[in-house]
Fold this sequence. Notes:
Elements: H1 2-28, H2 32-43, H3 46-53, H4 58-74, H5 82-98, H6 105-120, H7 126-158, H8 167-179
Amino acid sequence: NQIMAMRLFSAFMAAGMIVAIYWALKEVFSDNRVAFFIAALTAFYPMLAFINASINNDVLINLLYSVFFAIVIRFWNKRLNFKLIILLLLLIGLAMQTKQQGYFMMPFFLVFLVFQGIQQISKQSRFYYGLLLMSLLGTFILARWFWLKYANNAQYLWHNKDQLFSIRSFIETAFLQRYS
């Protein structure tokens, strides 16, 4: 019974993901039939249907990403308010707690904030000056954090002399085999 309950919960989260996708696509396409068709294609995409039928955290991260991007798309050209920022930060926090891929929401959030700040800066609002400054500072801090956390790994993968495989040796080997 617990497995069936978890699968049912996963199915509800998958349905919520499809609703969020449809909600976002209605903003992008003027014809609701196109939005419905793309959402239906997403619902019946085989790999996504397989993941959504299982019991794991992928279903929740898919839902959180879908809701996040649906909100960003819906409010891209609209006036930003503090409640929306808190909601997006809450979604990012939940995604970060769900899976490591949740960290990749943060750059999209910062781009959204920068765009909103630039869009509203002409109205001479102190809130948007602060928002723009906060998002630029957040972008710098996040970029620095990614650099410190992943730069050595990327460099190791590129110049790995100890092992047979590195990205650089793979590219060189593929190039030599192709053009020699």
